[in-house]
């Protein structure tokens, strides 16, 4: 009896420990997950372990990238020295249903200093995906030097494609950067009529930035199978909502809304957010370039867009008028709030000056609402 009791206790302890070890990333903090991932990437680089680096990637990425091991080796060759310091953070996006997290994504960007050089490392990481667990893990990693990162017009490659990228700042040839035509992609990738049926190939090629060299790198049939265009034909540049001439909305301000844009420039800092109600996505950044190229900021799933509209209405936003404070300010303050409708009309209100004085008291609540998404 004593032996049986001891065995039951041991089993209980083992099960309990197993449960702790296998606990879901759903409940870990963004900071903990993000820092752990950059530490893992640096550890693989210092040990020059390509197998360990590719092991951080999701099964989906491994299947959609033919030469992931070769890419990992290029990454390790580029990274030189022992890490002395790293710093950075990650933005977080998630999708929830009925109070439970369905999907989480972290997009990290870190400065890494070794005894040989200074690097920038960025990654896209899905720590938890209840619906598609094969996508849990790294989706993409990219490394470059601080010098290349600070060059004008630098863009991360990982925003478009899964895999591992090394950006050395070299000038690409015309053939390397020219996107394929749909006909060229079909021929070079050996695609069948069934594989491309119902897909806007021009949009697909632009979304993944497909060049000739990508045909041998990416599993294009798999990417086509999983492809869900984010923008459904809508422009990636939505900056005209903020400035261009508009046709003002005159009634039904809460009906048929397709997008909300908000920008605030206050005390030398800028906050921007864009809600795509049709695509159920939310984009946020501290740079107005967000509105010129949505691809520079990964959109998080967001299904409460209409609730935001109703909240704006309850705060009386649709009765606000554009205002400008005449006095000159040392630190200019300004804001633009735009609501876009499916018939092309807009509600837009602007203000500049001391925002706390030129806007209604509800502005603080509206600002917090839009920037938090809650």
What do you see in this structure?
It is a single chain. This protein has 374 residues and is of the alpha+beta class. It has a seven-stranded mixed β-sheet, with helices on one face. A five-stranded mixed β-sheet has the order 1-2-3-4-5. It has helices at residues 2-21, 30-47, 50-55, 59-64, 68-78, 146-149, 174-177, 182-189, 193-196, 201-208, 220-226, 240-243, 305-314, 355-358, 363-372, and strands at 83-97, 100-114, 118-129, 137-145, 163-167, 257-266, 269-276, 281-285, 300-301, 323-324, 334-341, 346-352.
Give the topology, please:
Layout: H1 2-21, H2 30-47, H3 50-55, H4 59-64, H5 68-78, E1 83-97, E2 100-114, E3 118-129, E4 137-145, H6 146-149, E5 163-167, H7 174-177, H8 182-189, H9 193-196, H10 201-208, H11 220-226, H12 240-243, E6 257-266, E7 269-276, E8 281-285, E9 300-301, H13 305-314, E10 323-324, E11 334-341, E12 346-352, H14 355-358, H15 363-372
Parallel strand pairs: 4-5, 10-12
Antiparallel strand pairs: 1-2, 2-3, 3-4, 6-7, 6-11, 7-8, 8-9, 11-12
Mean pLDDT: 81
Strand content: 25-35%
> How far from one another are the termini?
57 Å
- What is the N-to-C order of secondary-structure elements (H for helix, E for strand)? HHHHHEEEEHEHHHHHHEEEEHEEEHH
Specify the biggest β-sheet.
Answer: 7 strands, mixed
> How many DSSP-defined strands?
12
Please bin the fraction of helical residues.
Answer: 25-40%
Q: Please list the strands of the largest sheet in the order they lie side by side.
A: 9-8-7-6-11-12-10
Overall geometry comes to globular
Low-confidence regions: 1-23, 171-176, 231-235
Count of helical regions:
15
Cα Rg: 24 Å
Helix and strand composition category: alpha+beta
């Amino acid at each position: 009896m004593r032996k049986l009791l001891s065995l039951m206790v041991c089993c209980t302890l083992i099960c309990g420990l197993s449960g702790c070890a296998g606990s879901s990333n759903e409940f870990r903090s963004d900071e903990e997950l993000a820092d752990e991932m950059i530490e893992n990437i640096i550890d693989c680089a210092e040990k020059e372990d390509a197998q360990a680096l590719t092991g951080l990637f999701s099964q989906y990425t491994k299947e959609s990238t033919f030469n992931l091991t070769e890419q990992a080796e290029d990454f390790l060759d580029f990274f030189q020295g022992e890490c002395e310091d790293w710093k950075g953070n990650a933005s977080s996006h998630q999708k929830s249903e009925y109070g439970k997290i369905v999907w989480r994504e972290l997009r990290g960007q870190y400065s890494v200093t070794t005894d040989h050089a200074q690097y920038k490392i960025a990654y896209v990481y899905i720590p938890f995906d209840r619906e598609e667990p094969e996508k849990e893990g790294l989706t993409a990693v990219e490394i470059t030097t601080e010098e290349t990162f600070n060059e004008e017009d630098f863009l991360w490659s990982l925003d478009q494609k899964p895999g591992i990228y090394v950006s050395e700042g070299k000038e690409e040839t015309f053939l390397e950067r020219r996107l394929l035509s749909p006909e060229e992609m079909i021929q070079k990738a050996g695609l069948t009529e069934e594989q491309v049926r119902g897909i806007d190939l021009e949009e697909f090629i632009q979304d993944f930035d497909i060049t000739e060299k990508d045909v041998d790198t990416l599993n294009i049939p798999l990417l086509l199978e999983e492809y869900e265009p984010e923008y459904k034909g809508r422009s990636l540049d939505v900056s005209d909502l903020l400035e261009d001439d508009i046709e003002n909305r005159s009634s039904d301000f809460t009906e048929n809304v397709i997008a909300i844009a908000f920008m605030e420039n206050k005390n030398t800092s800028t906050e921007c957010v864009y809600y795509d109600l049709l695509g159920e996505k939310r984009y946020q950044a501290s740079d107005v370039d967000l509105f010129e190229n949505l691809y520079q900021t990964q959109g998080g799933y967001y299904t409460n867009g209409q609730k935001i509209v109703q909240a704006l209405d309850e705060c009386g936003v649709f009765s606000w008028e554009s205002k400008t404070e005449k006095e000159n300010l040392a630190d200019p303050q300004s804001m633009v709030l735009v609501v876009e409708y499916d018939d092309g009309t807009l509600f837009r209100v602007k203000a500049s000056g001391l925002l706390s004085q030129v806007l209604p008291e509800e502005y603080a609540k509206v600002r917090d609402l839009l920037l938090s998404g809650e």
